[in-house]
C-alpha cells in the first residue's frame, strides 16, 4: 500500500526552485540533495523538485499539469495570497476568478510550471 504521494516538479535548478517554493509555502525542505529536494506537505503528501531530468526547461513550453495549493478558508485568504505573490513578483497567469469549483488563481514558477491556488474540495 502507498504511504505517500509525491508530486514531482521538474526544474532547471533544484536549490533555486526550493528557495522559490519555500518562500511561497513558508516552509523549509524536508530532504535535500543537489538535484532533488522535497517538502513535507503533511501526512501522505510531498512536493519534490527535481533537476537534471530535462535540458533547459522553458516557461514557453506548454504545461498540462499543475501543482494545486488547496486552502481551507474563504475568498479573503485567496485574495491575500494573490496579493502576497504579486508583491513577491510571482508570474501570474490568471487572476482570481470563479472556475465553477470556487475562487481560484493561477501562477507559474520561474521554470514555467503552473501553480494553482484553489479552495480545498
TrEMBL record:
It comes from Streptomyces tibetensis. This is VOC family protein. Signal peptide: none annotated. Pfam families: Glyoxalase. Gene3D superfamilies: 3.30.720.110, 3.30.720.120. Residues 1-120 form the VOC domain.
Amino acid at each position: 500500500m502507498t504511504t505517500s504521494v509525491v508530486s514531482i516538479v521538474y526544474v532547471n535548478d533544484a536549490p533555486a526552485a526550493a528557495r522559490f517554493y519555500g518562500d511561497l509555502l513558508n516552509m523549509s525542505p524536508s530532504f535535500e540533495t543537489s538535484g532533488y529536494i522535497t517538502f513535507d506537505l503533511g501526512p501522505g503528501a510531498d512536493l519534490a523538485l527535481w533537476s537534471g531530468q530535462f535540458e533547459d526547461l522553458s516557461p514557453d513550453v506548454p504545461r498540462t499539469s499543475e501543482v494545486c495549493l488547496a486552502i481551507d478558508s474563504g475568498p479573503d485568504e485567496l485574495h491575500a495570497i494573490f496579493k502576497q505573490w504579486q508583491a513577491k513578483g510571482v508570474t501570474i497567469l490568471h487572476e482570481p476568478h470563479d472556475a465553477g469549483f470556487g475562487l481560484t488563481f493561477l501562477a507559474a514558477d520561474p521554470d514555467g510550471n503552473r501553480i494553482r491556488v484553489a479552495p480545498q474540495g
